[in-house]
Amino acid sequence: MNPVNKQFPVIQLSNWAVVHNSDPYHAPEQHRPHLRGDAKNHPLHPPVTDCSTHPITTSEIVGKTSQGYVITYSGSLYDLMDIDPAYEEKFPNAKEKLINSLPVLDD
Fold it and tell me: Which of 11, 28, 46, 106 has the most crowded Cβ, counting Cβ within 10 A?
């Protein structure tokens, strides 16, 4: 895992859900969770307007900060905003369960 990339801002992710890679050449136990959603403040997707978002899939989720931001393998930090309603309906309290399941990696 790369260290947290502090040169980039915290990326806001809305309409998000947890997804898994689906590489057919990896065994099921090797599939790692990622986030998919609409990103704001992403350094690779400059905004067109102040409220522009871009659909993304993150790198693998590896942990969280003590402030509750999700850390991905690339070192990016994500602030999970509104969850995808269909995902929340299928997996109630998904944000709380995800955050509580992750190790704190910034202490």
Answer: 11
